[in-house]
Design a protein that fits this description.
With 313 residues, the protein is mostly helical. It is built from 14 helices and 2 strands. It has a two-stranded antiparallel ribbon with strand order 1-2. Helix 6 packs antiparallel against helix 8 and helix 6 packs across helix 11.
């Protein structure tokens, strides 16, 4: 079968049968398109290339090609991500009885254990004291940081929140993650009060829970102006939030290179260091696999600490 045909069928299979999110499908598509580039680099006609001609040598050379053409040094994790996509494609071919290389023939590079950056209790206190809540912008920023830390939200989940999504009376809301999965997120009384205070200071009609405040609330009156596009621009971006948190970290004299994800890491480590059950933490973080959550037990393990304190006087 022609690679292009199998590629398109694979993407359709991911969407319709496997119910994968659009972000996941886009990533698989991008990785397989990189394989086309690799074939062309080897003077192989990618338009007529057949899946049956994928060999182990070809797959291994593809990995080498990734390092060769990268504008900057790529990590083992990135290289493995491309190979995982290729293996998933080959697994699909195997399932559909399309003759090709066995997906199990492709090995992944063994990477060092993942290390997570998190903030101590003292660092968190300094970070949350950095904004001056007399300003609506500073109140918004404090609310965002407190909300990520106390709920473990991903940035993408936070930026997509609308005011109507959040129930301040029940102290909960739901988010859609991995495209089509849904989980309930629980608010602390402190974060709920901050949200309430922030919303009371707003005088706009935007749907987004958090918006820009350095942009005119009314769009410029231009012919053909699309109000929906303008409203969407008022919603905060991932880059905006990451830059904002780094700014306050510097103001709080925190030397760690932190991001919004650092607050998510801090949420997980705080729970686990206080004896929360790892399955509960997995659910609250929205991890598909317990293995992903277990990385935090390498950072702080209260049981080991207790044992050490008991026997090592």
């Amino acid at each position: 079968m022609i690679f292009h045909t199998a590629h398109n069928n694979f993407l359709e299979y991911l969407e319709v049968i496997k119910n994968k999110s659009q972000n996941t499908i886009i990533q698989y598509d991008r990785h397989l398109n990189k394989f086309y580039e690799y074939l062309e680099d080897k003077n192989i006609d990618s338009n007529n290339f057949e899946v049956e001609k994928i060999t182990l040598d070809l797959a291994e050379w593809f990995r080498t090609y990734l390092y060769k053409v990268a504008e900057k040094s790529i990590s083992i994790k990135t290289a493995n991500a491309y190979m995982i996509s290729l293996r998933a494609f080959l697994k699909y071919c195997e399932k559909k009885w399309i003759k090709s290389l066995s997906p199990t023939a492709i090995d992944l590079i063994k990477a060092d254990p993942r290390m997570v950056e998190y903030l101590t209790k003292e660092e968190l206190e300094r970070l949350f004291e950095a904004p001056d809540t007399n300003s609506i912008i500073w109140l918004r920023d404090l609310t965002i940081m407190e909300m990520i830390y106390s709920t473990g939200l991903r940035i993408s989940e936070l930026t997509s929140l609308d005011i109507k999504n959040v129930d301040l009376k029940r102290l909960e809301f739901w988010v859609r993650w991995k495209g089509k999965k849904v989980r309930v997120v629980y608010l602390t009384k402190k974060s709920a009060q901050l949200i309430k205070d922030y919303l009371e200071k707003r005088s706009d009609n935007f749907d987004a829970l958090f918006i820009r405040h350095n942009t005119p609330l009314n769009p410029p009156l231009q012919e053909g102006n699309n109000i929906e596009i303008y409203w969407d621009k008022m919603r905060l971006s991932r880059f905006f939030i990451t830059t904002m948190i780094k700014k306050y970290a510097q103001k709080a004299f925190i030397l760690k290179n932190i991001s919004a994800h650092t607050l998510r890491h801090s949420f997980a480590t705080t729970l686990l260091s206080n004896w929360a059950w790892i399955r509960d933490v997995q659910e609250m973080l929205g991890h598909s696999s317990i293995t992903t959550t277990q990385v935090y037990t390498h950072v702080t393990n209260p049981q080991l600490k207790s044992a050490h304190k008991k026997f090592m006087k």
